[in-house]
Design brief:
It contains 5 helices and 10 strands, in the order βββαβαβαβαβαβββ. With about 200 residues, the protein is an alpha/beta fold. The radius of gyration is 15 Å and the shape is globular. About 40% of the residues are buried. The N terminus is likely disordered.
């Protein structure tokens, strides 16, 4: 989700009539365009960044259990489902955005393996029964300060499987707030957006 994306980072397409569209890049629904509503801070990850991310994940994504914690448009979680993830949980706090996610899940025929949870992300992590996710997407609003707290809650709460891969996205320069037990695997920039892949520390 996140704060408004800088122009350098490839914002979402805007269809005639003011609607937003995001395109699935590959997999069973390659090229499919999905609508999502305007909402404060809603900022889908751009195509070029997603292409790089899913190249990083190609060896672990098929059959994986995935969590898109700040789902927004669903660009990351639904792309994962298109590319063969066995289970995807999309967590979104805004009612209108969650409603659009449910509609897109139904349109794509993903109802048997994609679940939309309308909830505050950190509250959900604190109250739901934890399961071990193989892949986690963390792209909170850039100005929210939620990246570090979300990582801490995931690690402390038992939400991360052995061999987990965690996608991180933020604006601007700086380090990644990784808790003990996680290590940075890859790190890139696209314009003003920084993104990375983290996983379990070796040893």
């Amino acid at each position: 989700m996140g704060s408004r994306r800088p122009p350098e980072a490839e914002g979402p397409a805007r269809a005639a009539g003011g609607g937003n569209r995001v395109r699935l890049i590959a997999g069973t629904h390659r090229g499919r365009k999905l609508a999502f509503p305007d909402a404060a801070g809603l900022r889908p990850t751009g195509d070029r960044v997603r292409e790089t991310l899913f190249n990083w994940l190609q060896g672990v994504l098929p059959g994986a259990r995935c969590l898109d914690l700040f789902a927004g448009s669903g660009a990351l979680g639904l792309e994962a489902a298109s590319r063969g993830a066995a289970e995807v949980v999309l967590v979104e706090s805004a009612p209108a955005v969650a409603c659009a996610l449910r509609a897109n899940v139904a349109t794509l025929g993903f109802g048997d393996r994609v679940r939309v949870v309308e909830a505050d992300a950190l509250r959900w992590l604190a109250t739901a029964r934890p399961v071990g996710f193989d892949v986690v997407f963390l792209d909170p609003p850039f100005a929210s300060g939620l990246l570090g707290p979300a990582l801490d809650a995931l690690e402390r709460g038992g939400w991360l499987a052995d061999g987990v891969r965690i996608y991180l996205e933020r604006s601007g320069a700086g380090g990644w707030p990784l808790p003990e037990g996680l290590t940075l695997l890859r790190d890139k920039r696209a314009g003003q957006v920084a993104y990375a892949l983290a996983g379990r520390a070796s040893g």
